[in-house]
Design a protein that fits this description.
five-stranded antiparallel sheet, single chain, 216 residues, flat, four-stranded antiparallel sheet, alpha+beta
């Protein structure tokens, strides 16, 4: 989604605050969400959707990045108090919202999304990304271009073998040895996995000689 598209979507959502809408998102955990649009923040680029299962149950607020919204459908207009008309009982009553807590959750959610995106490198092979993911399970790891940086002290360049690990000045030899060991173990695990998935060759079926037909 480009900046102009996001701006148009943000503008459209801002015009429907207080309305009941249905969002289609790119988030696997929440592909569809339906509720009352509580806010659309142009600073943090997030929206807050209020949902409730019945008029007597507490309201739940969901925080979503605008960039994750594919499209939305207006189900009912905002309440008359906002200058619009809507069918009766279509908008559930909103409870008091802790704004500071919502903003903190929004910032945390955006930070998690950015962190997850920074850990995926579209410019390297699947094996390199798998190696990065494997190392990051035990050691602090980040991308620097197409190089893997471990503990901010060891750089692993393509083709990402143990001997491709280089330590910076002043880095203890034990740190470099540790990273090389992790890399070698991960690559050994990849090789073992490939061997287990190799399809065995089907032996050729020997020819059957029947000999000359009798009476022919």
């Amino acid at each position: 989604m480009g900046p102009s598209t996001m701006t148009s979507l943000e503008t459209a959502l801002s015009a429907t605050i207080g309305a009941r809408i249905r969002l289609q998102t790119t988030l696997p955990s929440q592909p569809t969400i339906e509720g009352t649009l509580f806010t659309a923040c142009p600073i943090t680029n997030i929206v807050a959707i209020a949902t409730t299962t019945s008029p007597n149950t507490p309201t739940t607020h969901h925080i979503l990045p605008i960039s994750s919204i594919h499209n939305f459908t207006l189900l009912s207009a905002p309440s008359p108090s906002n200058g619009f008309s809507s069918p009766p009982n279509t908008t559930p009553p909103l409870s008091n919202v802790p704004t500071a807590a919502l903003l903190a959750r929004a910032h945390a959610a955006v930070a998690r999304l950015k962190e997850a995106a920074s850990r995926k490198n579209k410019n390297v092979s699947k094996e390199a990304q798998d190696l990065f993911d494997g190392i990051s399970r035990t050691l602090p790891t980040r991308w620097d271009g197409n190089n893997i940086v471990v503990m901010d002290s060891v750089v692993i360049s393509s083709p990402y073998r143990g001997e491709d690990c280089k330590a910076g000045n002043g880095v203890p030899p034990t740190t470099l040895s540790r990273v090389r060991k992790v890399v070698d173990n991960e690559r050994k695990r990849f090789a073992d996995r490939e061997r287990r998935t190799v399809v065995p060759a089907v032996p050729a079926i020997p020819a059957v000689h029947t000999g000359p037909r009798k009476g022919g």
